[in-house]
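Reviewer 2 asked us to include a model.

Predict the structure of this chain.
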Amino acid sequence: MPVRPLILAIALCASGHAAVAVPYVLVPDATNNVITGFTQASGSQIAIEGKFPGEWLVLGDFIDSGSISLVRHAAQVGSQIWISDQLSDTVHRFSAQFDVPRYLGSFALANPRGIGVINGEAWIASGGVGTAGGIARYSFNAEPLGIIEAEDPFDFTPLGSGFLTANIIQSRLEFFSGAGVFQNVWSGPSSLDFPLQIIRRTAQGGDEIVVVGNSDPAPGLFRYSAADGSFLGRTFTIAILPFITISQPRGVAELGTGELLWSGTQGVFAVNPTSGTSRVLYTGENFVCNMADTVDFAKYCPGDLNNDAFVDDTDFTIFAAAYNELVCPTLSNSFPAGCPADLNADGFVDDSDFTYFVKAYDTLLCPLSP
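Predicted model (structure tokens):
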């Protein structure tokens, strides 16, 4: 099929998708294979036309439900949301679009857990890489970049010139240099057991590292000084619901109210760090909610087809090949999974998509965080 003419005049007058400027917190509901969403400002449930309250993404709408096992973390990687499926040894990629996320493909990784961006790379904590577990490094387009050796890390977070890991074997936080070399045991003495997620927050007394301590005898949110690792205290996570009391957290995120969002069995809650009082954000029967992460859908960059934070000639090459095919290409045609060139998600790559692409191409730099 000959290449169709590109309608530049129309493209240059086009307007892109409306940006969603409100940050949200995404939390996987691992029982129902749903990625739930909450406003970061207050913890109110995400509201999208045609979806249930609190529902951002239903994985089974895109992926065979029988292949999904334990959805652990949903985190922003450039213009995408990466989702770790721990027991299925898989990471799923979706476009970071507020109302119409598109499936962009999956890749295999043994025992994936926490996901984050450090030094312009996507890192994933894994219990199945390296000699005793480690961190798998990827480009934003899911190209493998290497492995950092670390003992059974569940999560990590940048700190100063290096990063911290949550070692679930030793139940402690460990500090690594920026080059990925173990430096020391970082966390001060505490009753922390089975640390899952790590975040950094600004509190009245200074920056804190908050860690999810999942296991008895003292589950809760453990707080340490970001400056020196000294233990500051434990925020109890207790939610009393009909027929069940929940105390063992699995994920954490900071809300604009000063509360800490925490997830566990039967739902998602918000706790006042001072009083220890929790309120319900999302709950129901047979829910198991996991790690939490703040995302910014306004950073979605529709023309960045290879997810490298630029809309340039490399993306144009991908777009032009898909445009020539018209019908949305599949992997068998050697196009990227999920047909990212179909910018309006109608199953075709045509002039409507090109209007969006040219606007992004003219801007060049995507609105992504460093």
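The two ends are 41 Å apart (CA to CA). The helical segments are 8-12, 313-325, 351-363. We have added this to the supplementary material.
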